[in-house]
């Protein structure tokens, strides 16, 4: 039974984004006007916005926001974060300027480099020396000096310039389209830092504790797949994908990435964000990070600890002032105080989950020492010498940073307006002790020196024209002795017994903690984290938290919610593609064609309907059937949460699988046991491939405790004609069209599944049957036409090669035009026509890359423009909703919205 984890979660009215980027907005010196109501005004010159969001999605009106806040300025001056008065002025001035646009080329590095290089030749030359109306000169994007391999860029541009200037407009369209399919990530520069400092290698087990929306997760996945992204299938218009040379399964990394978020809906955002990378080494989970469970290895029965953990914790987010301008008017110190305990608990859980010798990066997009150095200091102190700060000065040497603070003050919780600050815990009046705890305060100068807090990194906006950020790189150098300690530090003897109404504190809290610690002593540090529900409840009080609405909305008592269908669009595209190939085939059969003369017509190669016993409802092995007792069958992962379906590993004797393997000529040693399905039904809609590391975790002894939202790369999709009913319907349709009983989609084989194009690069290089090598003219033809006649394929060699594969599912491959490995496509071979199972977005992207004009039927340039405008309007709207103080119910966070 799932416990209600009422912990230190705080409902924050606005959710701020410290990772992803809004589209550019314009500003005048100290006033920013963000897009208003429909027909509202743009920042520059008050003109009507041409990019107004659709009516129903309009935010409410915004007032001009003065870019000053006395409390903010007084508070941070008192904290002495920037001692030099002149530098302080530059700091404030930088915060008042809009954030430049930054983006990163994603996926495997060879493809990313090729795409970056193409920008230098295709777009940047026409963006040189552009002068705006006010005389400012704008340049094309420049690489961020500190980002490896020049794969991240930054430029300052406003909407007006984008609209007016052809070069910028074309580039903006490119950015929008490539971001949409995932080849680019518009990510704030500072948000790219933590994954880089985590120093991830392909053999590492990595945990991203607070991962959504996932820009850093994507970087971690890329790092696990190594510089050449071997085995990472980022699709065809997304790079060499697995398609890259040597991207066979053998070159899959040993490591894995577990991307976790406490908010279930945001966890699904992660699915979307990481989809493009198609990594079989990724698992997405849904836990409160401070209670992330230990999983025990099925063989050794030891905990599967992590080599690297990213704790990019929920924070107050005042480092995002440049893009979340409402912080200027709303800023208070209260949020930091409320978040400190949660942040410390998450960091302490990270320590418990990390291997000795492993690293943790702790980061926030807040400037507040209470959320930053105080948390790091408390963790260091609690762990004794078992945790240390790493001196990261030699890492990313071009990155300008300020040292961590060694002394700071803690603001009053009761008096938030007068900037009442305390230097030590002893100074606090009795009635403040409910909220302010010792771990928030700085320690003695000697101890701060010993802890080397100066190794923390403070990133300020004036240093390199970025947002504000905090990072600490930590190394676990031993096993900490946590006996007698809580996750948030020792509580003093005089900790008040009286808590605010309805909450438990003092004695009750201590009792709960003692209970948890007794368990911890018996069962190790894990028990401390996992069995201290009582203590957690009091945390909520201590954090000043309001019980999280999201949690109430999504209790286990509620019926299982439907999975968001992120792949729906892609599947619809493919299904419509399939049906059009076959419809065309039925219709076109009346027209004599070259294909007919080449014995490709159905008349000459009749396609018998497969019998039901050959396809659907095959006899599935026992291991593929979920067992009612969790853990009894190690091949089945039953989710802790009833909202998720189980993951069932298929057995190599599975009849359907054997036919699939045989149809495409998979090698004998293909790891069939890493194929997984998510349905207890026998006719699996989709079959996914997971890495050995993911499987090891999913079949671990107590794996049912992990709430897995998503894992695996979808490799096979069930054919629409795989069931008898479908065949009968298809035959009837064909008969209606005056054809004999050939389904509109029936192939002449018993193979129940076809490939999924996105997952194909992972296994494509292994296939020995039904693989057709195509050339560029044929690819262009097959991208321009959803269902070209075989007779229309320009190359005779390709035409013949297609004609040689049996009617039904097949695979097409071609070297990537940018020299980044091979591209792989799921193909349908119909009697007289053929088609690639590629969705429209990918067609457009591929045609662009091949330098072919995108025809109007795919939306052409107009569609691009519309997409760009819609994306822009949607982003402005989401910022607007925040600005309006609209309540965003996510897991307790500020500093985090997409
Ligand atoms: C600052 S954002 C993370 C941004 C993310 N790392 C990225 O780069 O895209 C914080 C995230 O923490 C999640 N969160 C809040 N409380 C949490 C908790 N107790 N455990 C895990 N995640 C939590 C929020 O839902 C939010 O998605």
From TrEMBL:
What's the short name of a Pfam family annotated to this entry?
A: Methyltr_RsmB-F
Provide the binding site for S-adenosyl-L-methionine.
210-216, 261, 312
Q: Where is the composition biased (Polar residues)?
A: 610-626, 889-898
The principal localisation class reads: nucleus
Q: Tell me the segments the record calls region Disordered.
A: 33-61, 485-510, 524-640, 873-898
Residue ranges of domain SAM-dependent MTase RsmB/NOP-type in the record: 91-477
Q: Does the keyword Transmembrane apply?
A: no
Where is this chain's protein located in or outside the cell? Nucleus
Q: Where is the composition biased (Basic residues)?
A: 35-47
Q: Which family does it belong to?
A: Belongs to the class I-like SAM-binding methyltransferase superfamily. RsmB/NOP family.
The name this protein goes by in its record? S-adenosyl-L-methionine-dependent methyltransferase
